[in-house]
């Protein structure tokens, strides 16, 4: 993880729940806008809950046992008013829920989009530092957790609290003595709930961990299915999965036991409170301090106490979860992107690449993956003329990929600078080039040309949106791939499957080359695939690559030295430094690492064992 992100995580770990909420709400304007009306509706809904106990009291004391005997007219009026208020209450609850769902979903969709965009803005280096799953979960499950809490727990918490307050006020108006009796019964429950909530938090913490274990075991079993089958380790994999499921089951049962204890305590205390209210009420009634209606109303009001106290445990637990998730999402949003589009800083900051063939210049460039780490590239100072096809070769770990990532600005150099352009049209520092211009003119074809689960044509079209199927077919023809695509079951409309699984590794590379071809860049950076492909596909690929690189400045990270043989020039990288440069013909006979690499490659491609370095 990058140091900036670590510091941010550290700073926020100790942050209080309210501080997180404040920080989060500041980032969710959509939610803030809708909140006041929703709260007003929640309050109206809460107030509506005490209307039934009040109506019951009025009907008994004034309608049935009034001084002039039963008063049917009064009872009718009370019932009608009560029905009206209950109806309004139902409408308020309905509106509140609809509003709440809409505002939270709008706000969370906004948050998700911003978090997702931000993850994209972070450099490849930062994304690699974070576990990918962790980044994905921040944009998906952490936001879901928030959504559940805001729509269910949050509002229920507010309503429950309101219900407690309104019920207490109404009770106090009727009889302060009985109110004290009820509070005395519920206080121990509140203390018990606090204790149980802490246990519940621990229990659900274990459950979440176990869910993660189960997911990890399942995904490993699915992704690694071919290896599992090949090595006949199905039993062992199944046993591992069974163990994870069993542990999850046991954790879940334990957590449910605590939840059940909370509910039972609530029921028990409610029963005790009812008995206490009846006993105290009758005693007070004998003295004439309390009426029958008030007593019955109290019994109703006691029930309004039980649910909020029981719910409080779950709301607290959900709340803790949601706040933790919220923190993780906000931490992503607050990580400053280390590779920033200059166009974002202001229109004057960004520059366009010159409309001329592009050359590459490295000015004393060094790069370290972490402060204090050994430099992956050190003091690289060179210029590549436009339209040259350059092969970058070197031992594994020598810094070739780092070089490619700096040219395409997937990362910025630690020292020095990279420029694109040429002497006539001028040189532009890479960190000043607007991303739109950069992505249009410079294309990197990674080793594993990622394919999306769509058709061949769709995947090629990613290179240049708006390309028609006919244009895709023409592009494939021009690359010499017409016969290959014609042989596919549905031509360019053939679906490639997830990550291109329905195609062979070589065919996936062909699609990636076609994608780069329709993008029509001036500067191409190719990370040659290391996987072996069959001779026919190899021939097609070589031909397509020749056609693709024709007339474009090309930097190829060459794993096969046949690519270096065909290149205009070869750069040899060793331990982060460019140690040799020249044509293959020059270098192969000179004393130095290239001759050694080449000899070793010749031996290994001829099937002989290569000498150890
Ligand atoms: N994300 C990273 N974090 C830390 N160190 C890294 C990272 N990526 C590469 N390195 C280190 O930087 C050095 C150069 O790596 P690089 O990937 O550029 O080598 P390479 O020449 O492309 O290797 P290969 O031929 O195996 O792909 C290596 O020592 C490597 O361990």
Primary descriptors:
613 residues, alpha/beta, ABC transporter transmembrane region fold, Rossmann fold, 3 domains, six-stranded mixed sheet, four-stranded antiparallel sheet, 23 helices, 65% helix, 10% strand, disordered N terminus, disordered C terminus, binds adenosine-5'-triphosphate
Main pleated-sheet profile? 6 strands, mixed
**Binned strand content:** 5-15%
Q: Can you list the strand order of the major beta sheet? A: 6-7-8-3-9-10
The whole-number mean of residue pLDDT values reads: 82
Rg, nearest Å: 35 Å
CATH class of the largest domain: Alpha Beta
User: What overall geometry do the principal axes of the alpha carbons give?
Assistant: elongated
Runs with pLDDT <50, length 5+? 1-6, 608-613
What is the H level of CATH, i.e. the homologous superfamily of the largest domain? P-loop containing nucleotide triphosphate hydrolases
CATH architecture of the largest domain: 3-Layer(aba) Sandwich
The fold-level CATH name of the largest domain is Rossmann fold
Count up the helices: 23
Membrane topology: Multi-pass membrane protein
Keywords: ATP-binding, Cell inner membrane, Cell membrane, Membrane, Nucleotide-binding, Transmembrane, Transmembrane helix, Transport
Subcellular location: Cell membrane
Transmembrane segments: 35-54, 74-94, 155-174, 180-202, 258-284, 290-309
């Amino acid at each position: 993880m990058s140091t900036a992100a670590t510091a941010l995580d550290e700073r926020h770990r100790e942050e209080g729940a309210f501080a997180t909420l404040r920080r989060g709400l500041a980032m969710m304007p959509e939610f803030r806008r809708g909140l006041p009306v929703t709260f007003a509706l929640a309050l109206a809904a809460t107030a509506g809950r005490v209307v039934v106990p009040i109506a019951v009291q009025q009907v008994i004391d004034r309608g049935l046992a009034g001084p002039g005997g039963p008063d049917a007219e009064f009872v009718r009026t009370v019932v009608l008013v009560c029905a009206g208020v209950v109806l309004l209450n139902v409408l308020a609850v309905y509106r509140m829920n609809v509003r709440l769902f809409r505002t939270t979903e709008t706000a969370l969709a906004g948050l998700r989009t911003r978090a997702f965009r931000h993850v994209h803005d972070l450099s490849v280096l930062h994304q690699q530092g974070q576990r990918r799953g962790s980044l994905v979960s921040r944009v998906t499950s952490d936001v879901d957790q928030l959504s559940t809490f805001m729509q269910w727990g949050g509002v229920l918490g507010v309503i429950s609290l309101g219900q407690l307050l309104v019920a207490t006020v109404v009770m106090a108006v009727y009889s302060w003595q009985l109110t004290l009796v009820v509070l005395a019964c519920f206080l121990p429950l509140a203390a018990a709930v606090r204790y149980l909530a802490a246990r519940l938090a621990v229990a659900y913490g274990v459950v979440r961990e176990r869910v993660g274990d189960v997911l990890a075991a399942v995904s490993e079993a699915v992704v690694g299915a071919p290896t599992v089958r090949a090595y006949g380790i199905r039993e062992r994999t199944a046993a591992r999965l069974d163990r994870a499921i069993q542990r999850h089951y046991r954790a879940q049962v334990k957590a449910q036991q605590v939840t059940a204890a909370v509910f039972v305590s609530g029921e028990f205390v409610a029963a005790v409170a009812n008995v206490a209210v009846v006993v105290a009420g009758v005693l007070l009634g004998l003295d004439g301090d309390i009426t029958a209606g008030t007593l019955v109303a109290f019994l109703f009001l006691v029930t309004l106490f039980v649910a909020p106290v029981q719910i409080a445990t779950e709301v607290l637990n959900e709340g803790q979860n949601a706040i933790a998730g919220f923190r993780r999402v906000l931490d992503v949003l607050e990580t400053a992107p280390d590779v920033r589009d200059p166009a974002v800083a202001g229109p004057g900051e960004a520059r366009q690449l010159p409309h001329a063939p592009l050359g590459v210049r490295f000015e004393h460039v060094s790069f370290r993956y972490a402060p204090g780490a050994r430099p992956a590239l050190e003091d690289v100072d060179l210029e590549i003329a436009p339209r040259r096809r350059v092969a970058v070769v070197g031992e594994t770990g020598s810094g070739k990929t780092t070089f490619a990532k700096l040219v395409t600005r997937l990362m910025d150099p630690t020292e020095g600078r990279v420029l694109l352009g040429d002497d006539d049209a001028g040189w532009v520092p890479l960190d000043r080039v607007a991303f739109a211009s950069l992505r249009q003119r410079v294309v990197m074809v990674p080793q594993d040309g990622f394919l999306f689960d769509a058709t061949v044509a769709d995947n090629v079209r990613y290179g240049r949106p708006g390309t028609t199927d006919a244009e895709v077919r023409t592009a494939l023809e021009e690359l010499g791939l017409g016969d290959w695509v014609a042989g596919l079951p549905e031509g360019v409309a053939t679906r490639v499957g997830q990550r291109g699984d329905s195609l062979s590794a070589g065919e996936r590379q062909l699609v990636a080359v076609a994608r780069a071809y329709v993008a029509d860049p001036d500067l191409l950076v190719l990370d040659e695939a290391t996987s072996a492909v069959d001779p026919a596909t190899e021939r097609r690929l070589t031909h397509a690559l020749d056609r693709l690189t024709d007339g474009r400045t090309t930097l190829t990270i060459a794993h096969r030295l046949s690519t270096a043989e065909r290149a205009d020039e070869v750069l040899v990288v060793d331990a982060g430094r460019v140690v040799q440069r020249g044509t293959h013909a020059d270098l192969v006979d000179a004393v130095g690492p290239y001759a050694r690499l080449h000899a070793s490659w010749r031996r290994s491609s001829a099937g002989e064992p290569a000498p150890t370095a």
